[in-house]
Design goal:
Blueprint: E1 2-5, H1 6-23, H2 28-38, H3 41-54, E2 63-70, E3 77-83, H4 88-92, H5 95-98, H6 116-125
Antiparallel strand pairs: 1-3, 2-3
Helix pairs in contact: 2-3
Length: 126
């Protein structure tokens, strides 16, 4: 997770997403292409071993940008960018519980209970 300005987070997303997509195919060519961008063999090893294993079944959208508000000093929009599959708190939230059913505003027709039935039972009891 990286906290930065919104503009830098969006630029980073455009830079990182293709590298993660490339890391899903572990070949020498893809490692060389990714190394050309990152220039750090430990980062390339981490990307190809751990990150690519977690995002192997995801078709895209590996990162998430969450807006934090405005920075006090210069009023820049702040956000943090994180990998989607690595945030344990977001993964634990139940999606079904958050979704509510929609109901119409019209009142449902009320079912009229037979009034005579309880009176008939009272007559039989006596």
């Amino acid at each position: 997770r990286i906290t930065t300005t919104l503009a830098k987070a969006k630029a980073l997303k455009m830079y990182v997403e293709p590298l993660i997509t490339r890391s899903k195919n572990d070949t020498t060519t893809s490692r060389r292409v990714v190394f050309r961008y990152l220039q750090n063999k430990y980062a390339v090893t981490e990307l190809f071993k751990e990150i690519s294993a977690k995002v192997a079944d995801r078709p895209g959208g590996y990162t998430r940008i969450i807006k934090l508000g405005i920075r006090k000093g210069d009023a820049a929009e702040m956000a943090f960018i994180e990998l989607v599959d690595f945030d344990e708190n977001m993964a634990k939230t139940p999606k079904a519980a958050a979704k509510k059913t929609r109901r119409s505003r019209k009142a449902a027709p009320k079912a009229e209970a037979p009034v005579e039935a309880p009176a008939a039972e009272e007559a039989k009891a006596e």
